[in-house]
Amino acid sequence: MASETAPPSATPPYGTAVTGPTSLQELRRLESSRRGLTDAEAEARLADLGENVLPETRTASWPRLFVRGARDPFTTVLLCLGLVSATVTAWGTACVILSLVVVSCVLRATGEYRADRSMAALRELVASTATVLRRPEADRPPWEREIPAVELVPGDVIRLAPGDLVPADVRLLRASGLTVHQAALTGESAPVAKDALDVPGPPHGGPFEQPHLCFQGSSVASGGGTALVLETGARTRFARAHGAPVRREASAFDRSVHGISWVLIRFMLLTPPLVLMANAALRDRGLETLPFAVAVAVGLTPEMLPVIVTTCLARGASLLARAHGVIVKRLPALHDLGAVDVLCLDKTGTLTQDRPTVEQALDGDGKDAPDVLRWAAVNAWWTLQLADVPAPDALDEALLDAADGAWEPYEGVAALPFDPVRRLATAVVRGRLGTHTLIVKGAAEDVLERCALEPDERDRLLARAAHEADQGLRLLAVATADRPARTRAYTPADERGLTFRGFVTFRDALTPSAARALRDLAARGVSVRILTGDHPGTAARVCRDLGLDAGDVRTAGAEDDHAATVVARCTPEDKARIVTALRQAGHTVGFLGDGVNDVPALHAADVGIAPRDAVDVARESADVVLAHKDLSAIEHSVVAGRHSSGNIATYLCVTLSSNLGNVVAMLAAGLLLPFLPMLPAQVLVQNLCFDSAQLAFAYDRPAPRTLMRPTVLRPRDFLRFITGFGAVNAVADLATFGVLALTLYGPDALDDEVIFHSAWFTENLLTQALVMLLLRSGRGLAERRDPGPVGRAAAVLAAVGLLLPLTPPGALLGLSPLPTEYFLLLTAVLALYAFALWAMRARYDRRSGEGGAGPRPRPGAGQP
Question: Which residues are catalytic?
Fold first, then answer.
């Protein structure tokens, strides 16, 4: 008997739901009964535990996103350099640097804020009302009432009927033909049979597979029942998954950028002290060289990296949203998509549609038997018409589609709906004069048990059924029996002495675009792994139908299951574990999921992907949201990611190799010359011109071969690349010094500061224009006739280098016109420089096998 008052709030006895106790023990634990709570008890518990609502999720504000963008390593370094520049009164440098920081943070915050607003949390999976048993007083009988679902508390007893949303985590006390849709929780499309087990057996397969438990977020497909509320509000499994704070590991993009950042940060931190000490020791110049040292450090910095990265990713995300309905919630996730070489997904709704189709109707010998399909369709039709079933299940729909009206000549008399305990459905139709025909379909074991068969024959038929299941087919057995016509009701006791008719097999209907999308992904080096809760044979059959080599299909928990193309019988924990193992093996992993059970794997992956109609917690956990659950959209997203990543990689290769060469040459000149090799203002203007020209990389179109392999930005690859090409750049600069010193004016000509500054300023911009053309995305100079945005930007950069010394603004910067002879010699230096770049790039291409500037692809990318 339940008490009149609620238990003490300090240590409430109604706590975490468990599956072991009997229903009576659960009632006692919750201090309730099958008659429900009293109004007073319910009110006290509601005040104690709070309303049955999901925890609120907040969208980050624009200012918070802006501050978050400033935490990027490069942005932090730029801020520090800007502050140092302001300290030494280099106001021009400080203003330019701080402007770049603000522009980058504004672009990133705006893009992510728009994505967050478009993905505002939905609450449509939470029931609004519930039918509950409550008593006014302890000694009064209970009566049903409709109350807001937010007022439910643990210990309440509720009624479930077809079409109801399950309002809380509950345990069934009574059930009749109850099936529920758990797609929001597990992703499986077929309804799951539930039953009220008073003494549940040992738990297996996870909580969602327990027949006596139903969870918030699911809905009743058929049947009905009475259930005890175990958990409400934030304590339900749905809410815990919805609001669980999960700290995600750094993604592929974050790891790459941080690695490259810290390599360059070390260079930048060492540069000013080295410049100061060298000038003090060799040239007796002290703090007056500090602005020059800061300018050199700024020159090594790819100042435009935050702007280029954000522009590339925001532009790619915008194009995806407009053309394919793909929302990129976190901009770096677009790069991660370009780096993905393993894509993990479930087969349901992606490779297959959420419905089965009839494969074949067979007799007991395995031969085609159209009559079996006809009998099965008659059963499906009249069960739907007479048994008060709200809608046909997926298998019945497939039967009715395949039979094409074969049930029309029959007149239904009665029906016994599908019962998860019997695992049968029976329809009764009028037969010959004075007879009724019972048509029974259901699970093979249960139908054959009720047929008049010899034991050997029954075993043979069971073996055939098992063989069909191993081939990945779902199967129904069909049997009939003639009975004398009668008026009294039919019962399950009449399902005896049946005549076996045959089997109907079903396969999952394939998604029309799946096969082509799989081929396209494979061609782009993306290996697809199928992680499913289905039978291994079913998963293997789908792979064969799609032309996908399933290899050795493994069951979750087997040794090295993460190495298999198909892993069956996966629980949510298995999916997250396999994704984590793949990442630890060096892969960049994408995961496509749509249910609460997919949330751990979505967090574990480098990039989580969810369709728009996924449960809201899955959408909120994902980095990328698809308009439809379609692999083609993922393939388009991968291409867009590689497009953006290719341009970012090209920018880094070009700017870092050029900057490193200039810094080395500038340091050498600063030690060799009696004056500063370039004035700080000139360094600043040169950097500004080069940085402005490199904005064109955000709008460039990489070579097609760049889009065919995963793009990963690796610090070691970049260090090796920029060291080699930076050395060539430094040699070109030093050769220019030699031309100035020995050929044009003689050994004493370097005393002319203005000539030296002007000559080197022009040579720097011309070499940087050459670098932009020769190292861009794997394209040769003759590969396309249209120069594109990069070609036009390089032309403008070269024009500035040639013309600025001739203009009044150039004079203000301390530049002067150069003699014609210098340009003739400079042309020879540039020709040799271009040839050296071309030769080195050809050698690099042969070694990397990629045919483009930037990091090499992951060894073995895309291979299982």
Answer: 346
